[in-house]
Design goal:
Number of domains of chain B: 1
Structural class of chain A: alpha/beta
Oligomer: heterodimer
Low-confidence stretches of chain A: none
Largest sheet of chain A: 6 strands, mixed
Mean pLDDT of chain B: 92
Number of strands of chain A: 14
Number of strands of chain B: 0
Radius of gyration of chain B: 18 Å
Shape of chain B: globular
Shape of chain A: elongated
Bound molecules: adenosine-5'-diphosphate, magnesium ion
Order of helices and strands of chain B: HHHHHHHHHHH
Mean pLDDT of chain A: 90
CATH architecture of the largest domain in chain A: 3-Layer(aba) Sandwich
Strand content of chain B: under 5%
Largest interface: A-B, 26 and 22 residues
Structural class of chain B: mainly alpha
Chain lengths: ~325, ~250
C-alpha cells in the first residue's frame, strides 16, 4: 500500500483561535478515512487546507506526493470535493451542472458526455438528468454532487459531512454508494462526520478530532475494543456517589457526565447484579441502567469526558458568546 | 479561452431561463420611454439636438438598460457565494482571471442583449436607424458600458458578504451615475456648477457615444467619448479582476 495523503503537523489559526492544532496522519490508497468530531472541531478547516482552499498557518501536507502549498493546481486536478454546504447551480439541470464541471476540468466533449451519463446512472439520476436542480430533494442533490466530484476521475475524494440533514433511509443509501465507490473504483476517500454510526459503518480508519486535535486514530473496531468489552450506563440523581463507590478491579473506566455514569468492563451481563446490589446497599438511587457494546460515542466520551452532542452544545454556546462580544 | 466560454455559457443559460428577469429589466426603461418620452415630447424643445425629445431619450434608455443589467449581473456573484456555487468554480484548477473574464463577458452579453431589445422597441416609437455604421457605433458603446459596469459589479460583489449593501450601492452609486449621465436631458441644459460633475461620470460618455451612433447628434466628440469609456472599461476590468482574485471562500 502506498500513501495517498500525507499530513504533518498541519495547523490553522484564525486570529487567536487555533482551529486545527498540529495534526498528523497518513492515508493509504483505497482507504476510506473518517474525521469524526463535534461541530467546530476543525474538520472542514482540515479539508479546506488539504484541498488548497485555505493556506495552512504551519505544517505541511501532500496529496499523492504533490505538496498542497507548492502545486495548488496539481492538487486540485487530483481531488474531487463535496462541500459541507450545497454548491450546485440550482437554475441548471443535473446534466448541465455535470457538463459545467467537465468543462472546468477541461475534459473533451466525448469524455464529458460518456462519463456524465455513466455517473448519473451510478447515482440513479439518469432519468432526472434534464430536470432543473431546484426540483431535487436533498438526497438527490447530494448524489449529484458526489457524481460531479467524480467526473474528472480524481484519485482522492473529499466528502464533508456527506449525509448531514438527510433522512435515515437516504443516508443508508448514500453509505452504500460511497462504500461501492471506494471498492470498485479504488478511490481514496476522506470524509468528515459527527455521526458515529457513519464513521463506524463506512470508514476503514477513523481519526477522532476535538478542538483541532486528533485524540485517537485507529480502525473503528480497535477504537471500540480499546474501551474494554462492554459499557454499562447508569442514570442517577447522584453520579458522584457511584463513581466514588465502584472501586472493584474489574471496573476498567468510569466517566460521569450530565447525570449519567458510564462504566467500562468485561462480561457486563455477569457483573450487573453486583453493581445493582452494591448501589442498593449504599442507597444510591438508580433511574435506569443499560448494557451495550461500546460505540464510537463511548470512545469519544472516554477521551474527552463529554459526548459529541454535549461538546456541540458547548461549542454553540461559545459561538454565541463570541458573536455577542463581536456585536458590542 | 475554453474556461471563459464555460463561465459565459452558464450565464447565458441562466439568462435565457429567467423570463421574469428579462421582462423585468426592460420594463423600467420602456416605462420611462413611453411616459417621459410622450409626456414631455411636446413640452421640451431641444434646439440643435434633433429637436425631438423621444429621439433624444432613446439612447439614454438603451444605456440605462445596459447599465442596470450589467451592474446587476456582476453583483450576482454574491448569490453564487451565498448559494455555494462559487466554491465549485474556485476550487477547480483554473485561474481566477479566467473566471472573472467569463463572468464579465457573460454579464456584458446579457446587458447588451437587454439594451438591444430597447433599441428594437424604440424603432416603433420614432427611432430611425439611418446607417449600419451608426448602429455599429452605438453597439460598440453598449458593449463598453456592458463590460465596464459588469466588472464594476464584480468588484463590488467581491467585497460584499451578502445583499444588504446592495440597496445602498444602488441609491448612492448607480442612480447618481445614471442621473448625471445626460441620459434624460442634455448636459448643456444643466446649471454651470453641475456640468463639470457630469463630465466626471463615465456613463456620460457612453450615453453620448450611443446617441451619436443612433441619432447622429452628440454634445461630446465621439472620439473623446470612445477614449474615456474605453479607458474606464480597462480600469474597471483590472480592478474587478484584482478584487475577484482576493475573494476568500
Ligand atoms: N474563516 C474562519 N474565520 C474564523 N474562524 C473560523 C473560520 N472558519 C472556521 N472557523 C472556526 O474554526 C473552528 C473549526 O471550524 P470547522 O473547521 O468548520 O469545524 P467543523 O467542520 O469540524 O465543524 C470553529 O471554531 C470555527 O468557528
Ligand atoms: Mg464542518
Amino acid at each position: 500500500m502506498t500513501v495517498a495523503i500525507h499530513v504533518e503537523n498541519l495547523t490553522k489559526r484564525f486570529n487567536d483561535l487555533v482551529a486545527v492544532d498540529g495534526i498528523s496522519f497518513d492515508i493509504e490508497h483505497g482507504e476510506i478515512f473518517g474525521l469524526l468530531g463535534p461541530n467546530g472541531a476543525g474538520k472542514t478547516t482540515t479539508l479546506s487546507m488539504l484541498s488548497t482552499i485555505l493556506k495552512p498557518t504551519s505544517g505541511s501536507a501532500a496529496i499523492n506526493g504533490i505538496d498542497i502549498e507548492h502545486d495548488e493546481d496539481g492538487v486540485r486536478k487530483s481531488i474531487g470535493i463535496v462541500f459541507q454546504d450545497q454548491s450546485l447551480d440550482e437554475e441548471l439541470t443535473a446534466w448541465e451542472n455535470m457538463d459545467f464541471h467537465g468543462r472546468l476540468y477541461r475534459l473533451a466533449a466525448e469524455v464529458r458526455k460518456q462519463r456524465t451519463s455513466e455517473l448519473l446512472q451510478l447515482v440513479e439520476l439518469e432519468e432526472r438528468k434534464n430536470d432543473i436542480v431546484k426540483t431535487f430533494s436533498g438526497g438527490m442533490r447530494r448524489r449529484l454532487e458526489i457524481a460531479r466530484g467524480l467526473l474528472h476521475h480524481p484519485s482522492v475524494l473529499f466528502l464533508d459531512e456527506p449525509t448531514l440533514g438527510l433522512d435515515p433511509q437516504t443516508r443508508n443509501h448514500l453509505w452504500q454508494y460511497i462504500a461501492t465507490l471506494a471498492r470498485e473504483k479504488g478511490i481514496t476517500i476522506i470524509l468528515t462526520t459527527h455521526n458515529m454510526e457513519e464513521a463506524d459503518r463506512l470508514c476503514n480508519r477513523v481519526a477522532i478530532i476535538d478542538h483541532g486535535r486528533i485524540i485517537a486514530l485507529d480502525t473503528p473496531t480497535n477504537l471500540k475494543d480499546g474501551i474494554g468489552g462492554d459499557v454499562v450506563s447508569i442514570r442517577t440523581p447522584n453520579p458522584e456517589a457511584i463513581v466514588a463507590s465502584l472501586n472493584e478491579p474489574w471496573v476498567l473506566r468510569k466517566e460521569q457526565h450530565n447525570g449519567e455514569v458510564t462504566i467500562s468492563l468485561q462480561n457486563a451481563e455477569h457483573r450487573i447484579s453486583t453493581i445493582v446490589t452494591a448501589l442498593n446497599q449504599r442507597q444510591i438511587p438508580i433511574e435506569s441502567i443499560s448494557i451495550h457494546k461500546p460505540t464510537l460515542e463511548d470512545v469519544f466520551l472516554s477521551f474527552t469526558g463529554k459526548t459529541i452532542r454535549e461538546q456541540e452544545a458547548d461549542h454553540k454556546m461559545n459561538m454565541r458568546t463570541y458573536q455577542r462580544m463581536m456585536r458590542h | 479561452m475554453d474556461i471563459i466560454y464555460t463561465i459565459w455559457l452558464r450565464n447565458m443559460k441562466r439568462y435565457i431561463r429567467s423570463k421574469s428577469r428579462i421582462i423585468g429589466s426592460i420594463s423600467m426603461p420602456l416605462f420611462f420611454l413611453v411616459f417621459l418620452g410622450f409626456g414631455l415630447n411636446s413640452v421640451v424643445q431641444l434646439p440643435g439636438l434633433g429637436g425631438n425629445y423621444i429621439v433624444f431619450l432613446i439612447p439614454g434608455m438603451v444605456a440605462m438598460s445596459v447599465l442596470f443589467t450589467s451592474v446587476f449581473s456582476g453583483i450576482q456573484i454574491i448569490w453564487d457565494k451565498q448559494f455555494g456555487f462559487l466554491k465549485e468554480t474556485l476550487v477547480a484548477p483554473v485561474s481566477r482571471l479566467e473566471i472573472m473574464l467569463g463572468q464579465t463577458l457573460g454579464g456584458a452579453t446579457i446587458a447588451v442583449l437587454q439594451g438591444f431589445m430597447i433599441l428594437v422597441l424604440s424603432v416603433f416609437i420614432g427611432l430611425h436607424l439611418s446607417s449600419l455604421t451608426g448602429f455599429l457605433i452605438a453597439l460598440g458603446f453598449m458593449i463598453l458600458i456592458g463590460i465596464s459596469f459588469t466588472a464594476f459589479g464584480i468588484a463590488i460583489a467581491s467585497r460584499m458578504e451578502d445583499m444588504t449593501g446592495f440597496q445602498l450601492i444602488m441609491n448612492f452609486v448607480i442612480f447618481p451615475i445614471f442621473g448625471l449621465s445626460g441620459a434624460l436631458f442634455p448636459i448643456s441644459s444643466l446649471p454651470a456648477w453641475i456640468a463639470p460633475i457630469t463630465l466626471l461620470d463615465p456613463l456620460t460618455y457612453g450615453v453620448e457615444g450611443i446617441r451619436y451612433g443612433l441619432t447622429g447628434f452628440s454634445q461630446i466628440n465621439p472620439l473623446i467619448s470612445f477614449t474615456v469609456i474605453g479607458g474606464f472599461t480597462l480600469v474597471m476590468t483590472v480592478l474587478g479582476a484584482f478584487l475577484f482574485r482576493k475573494i476568500k471562500f
